[in-house]
Amino acid sequence: MVFEHKHIISTKVLSRADIELILTTAQSFKEINQRDIKKVPTLRGKTIINLFYENSTRTRTSFELAGKRMSADTINISAASSSVTKGETLEDTAKNIEAMDADVIVMRHPASGAPDYLAQRLSRCSVINAGDGAHEHPSQALLDLMTIKEHKGTLEGLTVAIIGDIARSRVARSDLYALKTMGATVRLAGPATMLPPGLDQLGAEVYSDINAAIKDADVVMMLRIQLEREGGSKLLPTKREYAQFFALNPENMKLAKPDAIVMHPGPLNRGVEISSYVADGKQNVILEQVENGVAVRMALLYLLAGGGASE
Amino acid sequence: MNTIIKNGRVIDPSQNIDAILDVRIASGRIAQIDKDLEAGADEQVIDATGLVVTPGLVDIHVHLRDPGYEYKEDIVSGTKAAAAGGFTSVACMPNTNPSNDNKAITRYMIQKAQLEGFANVFPICSITKGQKGDSLVEMGDLKLAGCIGFSDDGLNVEDGAMLRHAMEYAHGFDMPIIAHSEDESIKDGGVMNEGALSTELGLSGNPWVAEAASVARDIMLAELTGAHLHVCHISTSRSVELIRAAKQRGVRVTCEVTPHHFTLTEEAVRGYAVNAKVGPPLRTAADVAALREGLRDGTIDAIATDHAPHHIDDKNMEFSYAAYGMIGLETALPLALRLVDEGILSLAEVVALLSYKAAKALKIPRGTLAIGVAADVAILDIERVWEVTRQSIKSRSYNTPFENQSMKGKAVMTLRDGNVMHTEV
To answer: Per the CB < 8 Å rule, is B319 touching A231?
Structure first.
């Protein structure tokens, strides 16, 4: 089948067939990453720009490796070292990059909608959203789906609990849409101050008691909590109280199905949203997520820049 | 030269006129309204057959950006847009640079409009010096200079004691306080209406209560002080309820609604449409219905545009960073006329909300065709279908969510003091 999308901005617009194609493609690329010589010529001559307006280690490295392992030329631009600090508009920056005949721009940006904005204004270049504000982070969701599917064999009928600062989580939104499309049930949980309005209308089950969310779940995904953010102390009293009521620990993990897996998009706040006993426990698949991240991003780059067709 | 506007359907809510009549203008004033007036040799005749003749429309809430932001709009371009929309008078907000908190700027605005403009300008001065919220402007002196009311529009006066004393002091000079009622701390940086859509788009939400809580406070301060409070651009059903109840118990409160708030919902923001970014934000379908009911039952006194021109450089960017506001002078009439088509208001009621009642809310001596007043007249073709395009827009900016949309109803001629300010007959 043919991949119809020019950009990857949101998982909301991906069909079941799209997601299956991405995951199948990623699975075939995963094998490359396990080779001694981790390089194929698939995207030779293609140019990929990582345009990062926010700090990122994991996601940027993952996209960079994904491009390089397929022989694309990969350039990283970070806001601190570019014309961005000189006050250039996003449109001008992006058009300059496009004028240098880049094939894909991978963008992370603190403002929701920035990748949309870019995609509307570029004529040739594909845009991959590597996280925009509190909107979406589709490649993270797709690597989550890949990891879940590897463990559970299917996504259909699973119950996935996502716990933490849902209001400011782009990961939760992208996971919600993709998991729903694949037939899973998604529970979103956290302190009520971190549950934005309308989550039920977006298709989620909403809980402010995390024990209820974890009960009989197949997957428990914890999100990073950032108390140091502006206004954080209006949302939560202390990290101590957060750990007491909203963290995953060996005790409440028992409420999940016995074969449930534990996920986290990273970076971990050990002792805050997740106890080290669980983070390092035998049910955790956190590093598999990271590993699959490279494969999923290879798949996305391939589908956008490599011709798009795959059987 | 004197003029006769012949055979138009004259609608003047101030005198309960709605009939096919002729209007005679002499020496810049309304001289006579009657059937079958004979044109004298020195009189030019405007044939208004099939057209509607109304008092020149009055917009009590515009931003003309002059002085200081002339790259967005100035008094000439802004009043040209007004005339094209059928408006002959506009009340302009003080958030210029420097802000209008003094007699010199107030006079500059009025005079520039008289000498170079295409509509009358009635300045609204700031409540506090520099709109900083901490010390009162010279309200008495400003009234003498031609100011018609006080507002820190765009900003809420957060300090309750400050607003209370502003009301008391303004009341002493029989001047209204015009409130942009939005509690900044509850708003908490929200850039669109809070709800499922803001969650989906990942944009920070501005909940209805930010407006309603502030409206409630402001109403009670008006109740305490006896001052006249005019609430700007209400957007939520709760504000309508609060103002309806306050009016019932005799509080001196008036309010306005913008065409965009009674026409669009938050859905217009989908796709991060920066031209739908406005303060207060576009709300839900239930709010739109409540605003229309408020117009129907008389709770809302005026349709005002909050015409807020912004240069493309202030808009063309990430949604969260883009400026708030949209232009409105040239689309207000057709959007209001949709309420007639939908059976919510009569044509005369729409005309009243855009002229006589609006003027009355802020005691602007316009919005009527009474004999002897300045001949400010709008001639409307309520059936004309036209398209909003960058070429059609007279404003210096074209930040409107209605771009490339079809409109029905157009001011085809606008006269100020009997002189043609705009014509496309």
So the answer is: no
